[in-house]
Amino acid sequence: MTQNVVTAFRALLQSRRDGGPRGVVERALQALEAAALRTIDEFEAQHVSNTLHIMAKSRYRPCDRTLVPELEGRAEAVADTFTAQNVANTLWAYATMGREPGAGLMRELEGRAEAVAGTFKAQEVANTLWSACVFSVLCASGQEREWLQCLVQRLVTLRKSVWFNTAQLCQVHQFFVGCSVEPRLRVEAINDMWSLKETCREAFECAKSAPSATQQQVSEMLRHMGLSVEDEVRCPKSGYSIDMIVHDSGREMGGERSSSMRTWAVEFDGPSHFHKSRAPTGHTLLKRRHLELLGHALVTVPYWEWEGCKGAGEGEQYLRDKLALCVQTPG
After folding, report:
1. Range with lowest mean pLDDT among 39-48, 53-62, 197-206, 280-289
2. Which of the 8 DSSP states describes residue 279?
3. Count H helices, E strands: the chain?
4. Got the DSSP string for 98-156?
5. Which secondary-structure segment (H or E) carries 63?
6. Which candidate, 128, 122, 130, 185, places its Cα nearest to that of 156?
7. Which of helix, strand or coil describes residue 75?
8. Which CATH architecture has domain 213-328?
9. In sequence order, what DSSP letters do the residues of 222-239 get, joined into one string?
10. Could you tell me the CA-to-CA distances from 208 to 47, 61, 211, 296 in Å, in that order?
11. What torsion do the CA atoms of 157, 142, 173, 168 make, to the nearest 10 degrees?
């Protein structure tokens, strides 16, 4: 019964992504949520981790708000049976959702990660190290994470014998960037991994990015305002592709006039950057954090704010306010 619920969740969420009949799919999902809650005590480690992973991948927000807490409670109860894949999938799911597991579950997952670190495969290492980066953004605590040290040691071992695919290399690259800029992610073991770092960065920079029509509207409006705009610029320190680098030399902005060049990194964040609740995904939070730590004056333009502007005049004023606010914010 439990496996049937998990399998049905996966199929329905795939149908939802493919544009299946919305009303039918949503009613079926609600019925499955109810079935999952009724049988939650029967969920084993793989059922829990797979369900969380499916929901995170689909950016699905359960109708019943008790489902995720119930899954978390069950995960904590069966954490001592988690495999490396279960640990990695669960941590990745929480990181993708932009939230850290509750303290109890996190302790269990950390302990389990240490216990089974030697069995982590390449994908599981990449997913978990990327998740650690997101948690460093979400968690104010600066505590040492022994489980992370164990996973880095596993990375040291795997780099000699396992080929990471492009997506995994990109995740590991973000981990390396995090270690270079985030005080909570200092890991000595990565210092001598130059070859892997170069391979990861090359994979990361080869990822193509195509600006949406709406992003191009923002870019054109900034040019109309007399600003200099460079589209899709690679950050030289991190390799991140920045939607727009905007320069203003001595031009009035927010009523002030400056004799010095001001530069902003402008990110237009479309629907894929957010959950249904409009909370940013873990990927979005991580990129923002890294760019800010690297010294960029970051301006984010959420798609719904831009779409809410009525006409060119309101759009121009919106962007002026955004840039002026970033100028006024202490670095």
Report:
1. 53-62
2. P
3. 14, 4
4. T-PPPHHHHHHHHHHHHHTGGG--HHHHHHHHHHHHHHHHH-------HHHHHHHHHHH
5. none
6. 122
7. helix
8. 3-Layer(aba) Sandwich (3.40)
9. HHHTT-EEEEEEEPTTT-
10. 35, 29, 10, 22
11. 60
pLDDT value at 274 more than 70: yes
Indicate the pLDDT class of residue 331, thresholds 50, 70 and 90: very low
**Cβ atoms of residues 177 and 290 within 8 Å:** yes
How many Cβ atoms from other residues are within 10 Å of residue 187's Cβ? Answer: 19
The string of pLDDT tens digits covering residues 135-175 is 999 876 555 578 888 999 999 888 765 679 999 999 999 99
Mean pLDDT of the chain: 87
Give 17's DSSP letter: H
Distance CA 60, CA 13 (A): 8
Half-sphere exposure for 326 (CA within 13 Å, toward CB):
21
For helices 311-328 and 213-224, angle between their N-to-C axes, nearest 10 degrees: 80
Task: Give 101's contacts (C-beta < 8 A, 6+ positions apart).
Answer: 72, 75, 90, 91, 94, 109
pLDDT value of position 186? 78
Q: Which residue in this structure is represented by tokens 């978390």?
A: 72
Q: Is the pLDDT assigned to residue 256 strictly greater than 60?
A: no
